[in-house]
Amino acid sequence: MDISVVIPLYNEAESLPELTAWIDRVMTDNGFTYEVIMVDDGSTDNSWQVIQDLAKDNPSIHGISFRRNYGKSPALNTGFARAQGDVVITMDADLQDSPDEIPELYRMITAEGYDLVSGWKKKRYDPLSKTIPTKLFNATARRVSGIKNLHDFNCGLKAYRKEVVKHIEVYGDMHRYIPYLAKNAGFSRIGEKVVHHQARKYGTTKFGLDRFVNGYLDLATLWFTSRFGAKPMHFFGLLGSLMFVIGLIAVMVIGFGKLWDMAHGNPYILVTDSPYFYLSLTMMILGSMLFLTGFIGELIVRNSPSRNHYEVKETL
Ligand code: UDP
Ligand code: MG
Question: Is the pTM of the predicted complex or chain greater than 0.85?
Fold first, then answer.
């Protein structure tokens, strides 16, 4: 099979007939063999009924229905597990992404050798409250992930070589950083294609402004786990030791300073009357705690079943 289209959806009943008809038209025109995997993320409208009806008329349409709403990432991950096409395409269900982009995305993966091609909604049809923070968000994501050529990490329209989706795990809200996940799994040929974007035709957006707060927290998590996930002591140990040593030196300066003044008959105060004494003490305590966190982190890693899991590309 050439292409699997994975579509996560939550309350998108009105869009589905139009979307599947459009996908089918593009696939037939280009002679692709394909499957569509609709992942109904616990919709409370009649999306699942619509999917069942569509599947009756078109054997290429498959569906998975969650018992409750889990989120876009779990939906994508479940669709990825089932996908069988050589190229896997993800797109949103709300008709904001155009199926007309599929042939070119497919070509970029198969002919140009990309592992992942991400859409770039260069001209966006979303409210300003969304587009401006998005610019900032993408700039940060580029820096932290080191994937410098992407402008739109969170674009729902993406194409993958099949191995990629079988080797990454999208969980929580990590769908925003799939290129980063792919890079961490060793798939570094990541490309971008400018795609058409439309205003939402039916239904409403499922994400509010909290996406930006959560997005940054998730980015921090990914940065930390990808760099120190297997060796937390290198992070906490360094930070803890630095803080402890600075605190220790400061305490010694305060203590010896007082002794010096006493010995030379200068006026002096009790060390406990100096605010610096308490600051130094706090630094030493926090430093020790960070260091111990490192030890605990190492104990946790030692027990992780994936501590010796590596992505092997080839063996001979
Ligand atoms: N979605 C989902 N589960 C959720 C929220 C959203 O499967 O809990 C789907 C949604 O139905 C759509 C896609 O994720 O197909 C993108 O959502 P949306 O269009 O609301 O995001 P936006 O375009 O506003 O960023
Ligand atoms: Mg949308």
Answer: yes
> What distance in Å separates the CA atoms of residue 214 and residue 128, rounded to the nearest whole number?
19
pLDDT tens digit string along 167-178?
Answer: 999 999 999 999
CA distance 157 to 139: 19
List, chain by chain if needed, residues with CB within 6 Å of any ligand 1 atom.
8-10, 12, 41, 69, 71-72, 75, 92-94, 96, 156, 205-207
**Proximal ligand: closest to the CA of 70:** 1
Query: In testing the pocket of ligand 1, which one of 206, 207, 210, 214 has its CB within 8 Å of the most ligand atoms?
Result: 206
Please choose from 39, 92, 158 the residue to mutate so as to test ligand 1's pocket, defined by most ligand atoms within 8 A of CB. Answer: 92
- Decide: 50 and 18 in contact? Cβ < 8 Å: no
**DSSP letters spanning 31-49:** T--EEEEEEE-S-SSSHHH
